[in-house]
């Protein structure tokens, strides 16, 4: 199946899940329990996380907990050339909505890639090997090309799909936390 078709199916699946608020919140709670108990979270002094849209995994609890635990929390802004830059935020940071519907921080506190310990990578579809299909802009693909910190994604089981082949330039996410029914699968590749 082609990535564009999978992307559209994935968005439809996420929107349908978002209609069932109770089920979505239960799944998020399960995944967050796994994530917050992980060494990746515990060891990270700084995290990079996008502010989610309504139908994506809700990242607000991650931002709030990161700030409460004294972590440096960074949120991306999109730049020309499909590039991302991360900026430090706090509970007082203002945000503005982009034409894509994503909230970006009104902040000048730029944080380099080298300063981010853990990057939470969003996506629409994920393979069991950690590859992802995003929204199609290539922003995270470009950012990940030379990112050397830890990566993970918080993924609803409905987003898991192995019926596609990643491109040669795709980089897998190091760890996936999911509510997968058979043992709450997490993924850790051998690289």
Entry summary:
This protein is an alpha/beta fold and 191 residues long. 28% of the residues lie in helices and 24% in strands. The chain has a single domain (3-187), classed as NagB/RpiA/CoA transferase-like (Rossmann fold, 3-Layer(aba) Sandwich).
Features:
191 residues, alpha/beta, Rossmann fold, 8-stranded mixed sheet, two-stranded antiparallel sheet, 5 helices, 12 strands, disordered C terminus, NagB/RpiA_transferase-like, ATP-binding, EC 6.3.3.2, nucleotide-binding, FTHF_cligase
Explain this structure.
The protein has an eight-stranded mixed sheet. The protein has a two-stranded antiparallel ribbon with strand order 4-5. Strands 8-9 form a two-stranded antiparallel ribbon. It has one domain: NagB/RpiA/CoA transferase-like (Rossmann fold, 3-Layer(aba) Sandwich), CATH 3.40.50.10420. Strand 8 and strand 9 (132-133) form a beta hairpin. The protein has five helices and twelve strands. It is of the alpha/beta class and 191 residues long. Mean pLDDT is 91; it is low at 182-191. The radius of gyration is 16 Å and the shape is globular. Helices cover 28% and strands 24% of the residues. The longest helix is centred in the N-terminal third of the chain and has 17 residues, at 3-19. Keywords: ATP-binding, Magnesium, Metal-binding, Nucleotide-binding. Its EC number is 6.3.3.2. It comes from Candidatus Enterococcus willemsii.
């Amino acid at each position: 199946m082609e990535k564009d078709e999978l992307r559209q199916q994935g968005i439809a699946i996420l929107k349908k899940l978002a209609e069932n608020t109770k089920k979505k919140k239960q799944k998020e709670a399960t995944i967050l329990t796994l994530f917050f108990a992980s060494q990746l979270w515990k060891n990270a002094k700084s995290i990079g996380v996008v502010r989610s849209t309504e139908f994506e995994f809700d990242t607000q609890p991650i931002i709030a907990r990161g700030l409460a635990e004294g972590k440096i929390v960074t949120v991306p802004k999109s730049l020309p050339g499909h590039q991302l830059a991360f900026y430090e935020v706090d509970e007082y940071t203002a945000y503005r909505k982009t034409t894509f519907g994503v909230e970006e921080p009104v902040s000048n506190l730029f944080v380099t890639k080298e300063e981010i310990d853990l990057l939470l990578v969003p996506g629409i579809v994920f393979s069991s090997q950690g590859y992802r299909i995003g929204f199609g802009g290539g922003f995270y693909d470009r950012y990940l090309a030379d990112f050397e910190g830890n990566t993970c994604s918080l993924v609803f089981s409905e987003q898991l799909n192995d019926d596609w082949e990643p491109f040669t330039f795709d980089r897998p996410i190091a760890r996936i936390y999911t509510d997968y029914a058979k043992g709450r699968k997490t993924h850790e590749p051998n690289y």
